[in-house]
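Example A, followed by Example B.
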Amino acid sequence: MAEIRLEQVRKAYGGVVAVHGVDLTIRDGEFVVFLGPSGCGKSTTLRMIAGLEEVTSGTIRIGSRDVTELEPKDRNIAMVFQNYALYPHKTIYDNLAFGLRMRKMDPAEIDVRVQKAAHMLGLEDYLARKPKQLSGGQMQRVALGRALVREPDVFLLDEPLSNLDAKLRVRMREEIARLHQDVGTSMVYVTHDQVEAMTLANRIVIMRDGHVQQIGAPLEVYDRPANLFVAGFIGSPEMNLIEGRIEGGHFVAGSLRIGLPAGTSAGGEAVLGIRPEHLALSNDNNGVAFTVRVIEQLGAQTLCIGEAGGERLRILVDRVDSWSPGQSIGVRFPATKLHLFAKSSGQRIEAAKP
């Protein structure tokens, strides 16, 4: 196991910069997820850690070693790809053992490692089969096992669940989380799926256009997004964002006038954010009239889409069966649940501490 440090790591393809000066320390045994839309630089950053992409500038260290110029085979990392890349003509046992045999490891030690990995991943009954005889989830477990037998300093996983259906993705998320708990090795995981990031990560690195937008624990980036991009990207259903201005302790947008937390003294144009589950229903005159337009029943919860003061809003509440399109209900904007962002820069506006 080892700490990973990225110091001003940059990647350019000619005049196009794919990754802009990433600074990041991944602690020994930590599970870090790179999250962002396609083309944001997350996979490129992972491939630079692996040695599959040359670093244009900056330094990568694994443990005490500077690995920036080292070949992948010399970094003691193991990588799991979206494509399982199993040898179709070899048994599962031979797929797991192949890399160790190429290193001319003692056959007895190979068997110990293969059997241990097979036990951890529930593959004991499949070792004599060929990949075509396995399901997608089982093949992904073999790919994980092939990485596990190497006993690397770092696991690198590049969208490993993208080829699986929704039910299998949930099951494999659980298996990857359990594997990390069992082996305690540092894991770096790339995904565009925020649910995977929120459920697996100790910390999330959110990227956009090659720039790191925010680094933090899952609930930290959920509760205190650093900017408008993070606010809109994290959360499902996504955060309500309303453009307006700050006037004397209130946020004003059209006919909406919403009280802000004490200490919010900044004025001018801003964007107010509130998550759908944080809008509160109101049965008194203190609420804002909300007109129901679309109702989505999610089982235990109800998502309602409509308008308040001319602004489109989503409300997520415990199940309600009685609402209908065109109905008017009252909603409140709890001051403690509001987020404010500068319209010009998109950066978070913090209320002054009392």
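Example B, a separate protein, is given below in the same form.
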Amino acid sequence: MKGFNIGELYIEKPIVQGGMGVGISLAGLASAVANQGGIGVIAAAGIGMLEPDGHSNFLEASKRGLRNEIRKAREATRGIIGVNIMVALSNFGDMVQVSLEEGVDIIFSGSGLPLTLPGYLKEGYKTKLAPIVSSGRAVKMIARRWLERYNYLPDAIVLEGPLAGGHLGFKKQQLSDPDFTLEKLLPGVLDEVRDLEAKHGKAIPIIAGGGIYTGADIYNIMKMGADAVQMATRFVTTHECDADIRFKNTYLEARDEDIVIIDSPVGMPGRALRNEFIDQVMDGKKKPFICPYHCIATCDVENSPYCIALVLRNAQRGNLKHGFAFAGQNAPRATEIISVADLMGQLEAEYEEAARADSSG
């Protein structure tokens, strides 16, 4: 597998570990991926809930928690560390500022259009900025706004397709529409990015994610023009993933029919593993609650039957009776828990096998 550049950053392996919020990808997983030559990513969403005062002092706890995880990752690796920050976070600006102050290599931002992201950059900051999009149209809109207001172009683009886990940037009916597969969306993003590169003389690598599971998947999407891939689900069943073993076991026990699309309180569809908690929600047994966090700006706290941040925190800690696990479409393919080093080795071997098969016809 060939490496790629994001500006002056050179990434040895074309693999970005996707950010998984509320404690699934913290310093442990991110540093392990970075040590293997990929980009390790800490997720900012819900990180304050893992702090002792997360319930009573969520905003300050979030800044402290993110800062601590970035520093822990830096102590554990000399590799490339990123932070994933959802646009929908009510403390989006705080999380961006902490990431910049700590000098993370790259910020990935989606779950909304990060139209103001370059506005946080100050002289001397070297952090790269990569919006997460679901279409070429979104690339065009973001690039136009960034150029007009900040004279700045994205340093990379992440195209996330409809097979990803967690919150999805698509309408429900698009998730199973053959016109909205990752392979169908990639050419439109390629066209927009190549046009920007030609006009402005800046290389903008495209990172494709959502349903990428094997080294053959990596080979095939890169053959179509992607420079790298984003993978999240595959990294959950690693020893270094920061979730409780009971969370990881839900992937090992999952069947294809357990994958469901839920209506998340944040106003987006989400892909998750069905369990008793989700069944209770679907049966109307959960009632609106008092929101303690106000962590997502778009959350319908008055009518929601549960707190998405709280149930994801419960799941991260292994309390699946009071939570559920987000997961990508391929989660049921997991059969064992292995190290990140072994996983990266498997992916490289699968990639090389696919390349040999392709070259031999």
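On Example B: The first helix runs from residue 27 to 35.
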